[in-house]
Fold this sequence. Notes:
There is one protein chain. The chain is an alpha/beta fold. The chain has helices spanning 22-29, 46-52, 71-80, 97-106, 184-205, 212-228, 236-243, and strands at residues 9-15, 34-39, 56-59, 85-90, 93-95, 114-122, 132-141, 145-146, 157-158, 165-167, 176-179. Strands 1, 2, 3, 4, 5, 6, 7, 10 and 11 form a 9-stranded mixed sheet that branches. The protein has a two-stranded antiparallel ribbon with strand order 8-9. Helix 2 links the parallel strand 2 and strand 3. Helix 6 runs antiparallel to helix 7 (236-243). The relative contact order is 0.14.
Amino acid sequence: MENSGKSNITFFLAAYNEAFRIEYAVRNLIQYGEVIILDGGSTDNTQEVAEKFGARFYVRPKSDKPYADTEEVLDFAKSLCQTEWIYYGWVDNLLTKKLLDKITELSRQNKFKRVFLPVYTYMWGDINHKMMKAKYGGFFLKDSVTFKDNYIHHLGTFLGRPDEEMFLPYDTEAAIYHFSLYDLNRFVRGHLGYANEEAKYKFETGVRKFSLRYTFGSMLNYFRLFYLKGAWRMGVIGLLNGML
């Protein structure tokens, strides 16, 4: 199925050993613009699968911040980009058609330079119950964002004015569906890696020091996620995710 004209967007997807699910991510986006994989050194056949479905594949520049996207990686991405707009995401995200149509439309306007997209996180294939929701600023004009001093779970600093940022409303029909890791072993390894890296950054930069308040807050967060946000509806999966 062809979209009504290519968008002004290049879709960049970070990947590492994602042969199992990269097909879905590429096929999700390929009709809306060029898809470029920024690979972290996969040892499986991620490249073969990605290219089979039309993506271009590159190994991203090495970094001493393995869990953060650096200015060097962004500069490398921009050197490959022939459009004005960049979507910067990951293989475990799928965008609904309504959202893809919306960002295609936004890629042709000149009022906004960065757009925050609604994200719903689902766990281990369960799409009946959202574990959490957020907004993700990974859609931007390629020269409007810098990744200098970037750190984990952040996508840089906006270089424009506040009125040049747009926040799309939450809408399950126009959103990113984030499907977290499908395997418990990968989930635990990934979670520990992310958690250690984020804690190290915040401690070394003084963003946050050890605090009993935050320690107890993390315990309360489990209560919020499991009971108030409805993870209990997922049964054992919800219990495990809340504890992790």
